[in-house]
Amino acid sequence: MSSQNEESQAQASTDSLSTPCQTPKGVHDILPDDHDYYTFIKKVIRHRARQAGYRRISTPIFEYTDIFARSLGGATDIVEKEMYTFLDKKGRSLTLKPEGTAGVARAYIQHNMSQLAQPVGLYYIEPHFRYDRPQKGRYRQFWQFGFEVMGELDPCIDAQVISLANKINEDLGIAQLFDIQLNTIGSQEDRQKYTQALKDYYYGKERSLCEHCKSRLEQNPMRLLDCKNEDCQILAELAPKMAGYLSKESIEYYEDVKEYLAELGIKFTENPKLVRGLDYYTNTVFEFWDAKEGAQNAIGGGGRYDGLIEQMGGPSTPAVGYAAGIERIIAHMKREKIRVPSKDQIHVFVAQLGKESRKKCLGLIEEMREAGLKTIGALGKGSMKAQLKLADKFDAPYTLILGITEVREGTIIIRDMRHGSQEIVKFDQVIDELISKIGEENLDKYSPGELIY
Ligand code: AMP
Q: Distance from first CA to last CA of the chain, Å, rounded?
C-alpha cells in the first residue's frame, strides 16, 4: 500500500471515530410513527395498482451509470449534478437510481416483456437517491412510487394514468391540494424542429442568459423555458412556443388526452411551459402542483416516453408513466392534519414473579399472540412495582400478573391499567377474558396465507 493510501485510510478511520453518531446530510431514519404513514400509503398504492392490472417490479438500487446518463439526457439536473455515481472494484461505473423509469425500461428490454400481453403495466415503491440540496421536501434518499404502462400508444392510457394518480391522492385525503398541470411536448420530430427554433431564437442573446442557461442552450434548450432567473424568464416569455411546432397527430393526440380527462371528470390546467426536464419524454407531460406553492412543492409527475425503450436498444415501444414522492405526500397529509391508523398499540403486558411463573408465561404469551393479542412479555426479573411501571410506559391497557400463588392456584390476575382495577381469573380462561375486553374486531390476527404446493 502506498504511504499516501495508508495516510488517507488512517484519516478515514479517525474521521469515522470522530463523526457524530447521526445520519449523513440529507437522509433520515423512518421512525415507527412515520412508518404508520408509509404502511398506509403503500397499501393504497398496491391496492389501486392491482385494480388497474399493474404488477409490482423492483429494479436494483444501482444500475450501470449509462442506463441513466443516456436515457435521462446529459444536460439535465439529475445527470449533471445529482447522481450518486461510483466505481466498483473492477472499475465499472455504477449509479444509485435517481428515478424509476430508466431501470424499468431496462428490465422490460432485458426480460423480453414485449412478448407478454401488451400493454405491460408495472408499479414500484422504492427508495431513490439524488444529490439534491437538502431542504423542505427535498432529500438525498427519498421514496418514490410509480407506474409504467408499456406497449400501447393511446391517449386513453395517459388519461387513465393521470386518473389513477389522482385517485391515490383522493384516497390519502390530499387530492384537493393539487393542480394537475398538463402539456404536450410533441413527438420526437416535433421537438427536434422546436429545439432548433429555440436555439435560433437564443443565438445572439447569450449575454442575457444566466450561466446555467448558457451551458444548456446547445444540448437542452427547452430547459431554458423554466429557468427561474428573471432575465431568462423575460426571454422565455418571448421565445417561440411549442404549439407552433406540433404536428397534426401530436395536436390530435393532446386533444384526445384532454377529452378523456374531461370524460373522467378530472380537472387540469394547461401549462404550455411545462417540459418535465428529462430527455425521454414525448407528447403528454403532467405534474401535480401544490395549489399554493406551485412547482416547488410538486408531489409527482410523469408523461409519455414513446422513444425511450427503442433508444435503449429494445423494440419500438410506446409507454407512459407517473412517479410521486412519498415524503412529500406525508408532509401534505400532516399539513392537513390527516392521521392514519396505527396498528402498533399493544394490548397486554405480562408481569410475573419467580421462575415457575416465567416458564408458564412463555407458552401463554405465544398463545396470546397467536390469538391476535399484541403482547409484550419482557419477562424480566424486576420487582412487581417496576414491571407495572414498565407496563405503563408501554401504554398497555391490560397487564397480566402471575406470581407463585397464582401458579399454585391455577389463576392469573388481569389488571386494567386505565382504571387501576384488578380481577382474578382462571389461567385457562384468561385469553377468552382478554378477547372479550379488547373486542374481537381489534385483534391483530395474522395468517401467512395459503401456500400452494
Ligand atoms: P420528478 O420525477 O423529479 O418530478 O420527481 C417526482 C416526485 O418525486 C417529485 O414530485 C417529488 O414528490 C419526489 N422527489 C423528487 N426528488 C425528491 C427529493 N430529492 N426529495 C424528496 N422527494 C423528491
A: 55
Residue 77, pLDDT score: 84
pLDDT of residue 11: 52
What percentage of the chain has pLDDT greater than the value 90? 83
Pick the CATH number of 348-442 from 3.40.718.10, 3.40.50.800, 2.40.30.110, 3.40.120.10: 3.40.50.800
How is residue 115 written as a grid cell? 412478448
Task: Look over the chain and give the mean of its residue pLDDT values, rounded to a whole number.
Answer: 93
CATH 3.30.930.10 fits 20-187+247-335, yes or no: yes
What per-residue confidence (pLDDT) applies to 1? 42
Domain coordinates in residue numbering, the chain: 20-187+247-335, 348-442
pTM of this structure: 0.91
**Ligand 1 proximity of 328 Cβ (cutoff 6 Å):** yes
Q: In the block, which residue shows the cell 401463554?
A: 364
- If one residue of 328, 329, 330 were mutated to test the ligand 1 pocket, choosing by the most ligand atoms within 8 A of its CB, it would be 328
Out of 30, 77, 144, give the residue to mutate to test ligand 1, the one with the largest number of ligand atoms within 8 Å of its CB.
144
Radius of gyration (Cα) for the chain, nearest Å? Answer: 29
> Is residue 130 within 6 Å of ligand 1 at its C-beta?
yes
